[in-house]
Amino acid sequence: MVLEELSALAAAAAIRRGELRAETYAEALLERCRRAAHLNAFIALDGDAVLESARAADQARTAGRPLGPLHGVPLVLKDNIDTAQMATTAGTPALKSHRPRQNAPVAERLFAAGALLLGKANMHELAFGITSNNAAFGPVRNPYDPTRIAGGSSGGTGAAIAARLAPAGLGTDTGGSVRIPAALTGIAGLRPTAGRWPQAGIVPISHTRDTPGPMARSLADCALLDRIVTGEADDPAPRSLKGLRLGVPRGYFWADLDGELAVLLEAALDRLRAAGALLIEGDIPDVEALDAAAGFPIALHEARTDLDAYLRGHDSSLDFAALAQAAASPDVRGILGSQLGAGRMPDDAYHAAMTRHRPALQAAYRDYFRSRDVSAVVFPTTPLPAVPLGQDETVSLNGRDAPIFVTFIRNTGPGSLAGIPGLTLPAGLTASGLPVGIEFDAPAGHDRDLLAIGLAAEAILPPIPAPKLAADATEAAAIRS
């Protein structure tokens, strides 16, 4: 049994049966963490505390106490999710000493199910970006090529899970921050329907757009975490792909893709078609214009009020302006600073976004699913694979420079804004060994149907091999430099 390869489901079952000690499992993961320290996946990792919790889990099993579905399984949480056990920094200097008094509800429900806190994951500062190149805590590195980004803003969670440092964990997603790093690191990630998972106890950007979500190497683990957090009675079963109608919106979501990624995604469609799925081509009307009209006005306007409300709720002396002025990452400092003066997002632009443009986008999605009679829409999670670290402003796509942030969130942003559920699955590796992802989005509230589709799709998509970690400390140091 290769312990670090175990899924959360398998590890929990082995611990419950007494075939695996939680302490032994934790030791194996911590050793893997030491070997992968060059990836910089964690902001906080306390090995002694993890082992103490694991020993307590073993004692509880030996004593015959009731065991939860995640008993003794260490998970990684993005460091914008409140935990009483460790500080919640949100990857920003001003919050380095921020110690919440209680766990966020999503964390508390996992801990109540027996999960252990392995560590708090590194992230793009304050979740305002997609590279996780964090100037305060250092960049997260992609396990498949440590010279490249792991995606963001939940990059540390993605890197930790892909590198087999933990079987599963939580990220947060405002415009793609669960799905983008999941796609770039070769794992699964779910963005639930907006409001399905509680937002409380999470350093926010936008109450309209934010949601936590699970990330794991298998969609079954994502479904398990979803069941625990939402209180569903059981996990969904895979849905037959035969006759399943899936929308393929070529005009926007499939346009202007990296050439190698496009080939891999077309191959994924071929696999779905061969399994009996019916691929229904047709576009979602006005999706690009509506996303542009509402996306940033909502996120930027709500960031000011939502961050202030979070800080007040923790009796902090800080406010939005203090966070903006102390931000270490140039891109984050720039975008937050833009909201401090006369150039900040106007109230009327926010009002129009909330009352006209976002409702119109939601109606466009509803009409699309209904008129085309499709259960989900399928598209590339990102338009290109992971790019080199340091490309913080622009990226080369098909021979031209493009803004990196809007390029990477192009496909994940509209569904986030509409509040519908989306999941990403690994779709293959490029010739240079970089993972790419395929996304399925479903109507609002159809999360379990989406998981059932994803479980079936996962079974026919190519498996992604584990990344090769640096052989020794010398090689790791060379990578960091």
If classified by CATH, what would the architecture be?
Answer: Alpha-Beta Complex
Shape: globular
Domain count: the total is 1
Strand content: 15-25%
Most strands sheet = 11 strands, mixed
In the predicted model, the low-confidence regions spanning at least 5 consecutive residues are none
Strand order of the largest sheet: 1-3-2-8-10-9-16-17-13-11-12
List keywords for this structure.
single chain, 481 residues, Amidase signature (AS) enzymes, two-stranded antiparallel sheet
Structural write-up:
This protein is of the alpha+beta class. It has one domain: Amidase signature (AS) domain (Amidase signature (AS) enzymes, Alpha-Beta Complex), CATH 3.90.1300.10. It is 40% helix and 16% strand. The protein has 16 helices and 17 strands. It has helices at 8-17, 22-35, 47-62, 105-112, 155-162, 179-185, 219-230, 259-274, 287-313, 320-326, 330-337, 347-371, 404-408, 413-418, 447-460, 473-480, and strands at 42-45, 74-78, 116-121, 133-134, 138-139, 141-142, 145-149, 168-173, 188-191, 211-216, 245-248, 278-281, 376-380, 394-397, 400-403, 422-429, 435-441. The strands form 4 sheets. It has an 11-stranded mixed beta sheet, with helices on both faces. The protein has a two-stranded antiparallel ribbon with strand order 4-5. It is globular, with a radius of gyration of 21 Å. The relative contact order is 0.14.
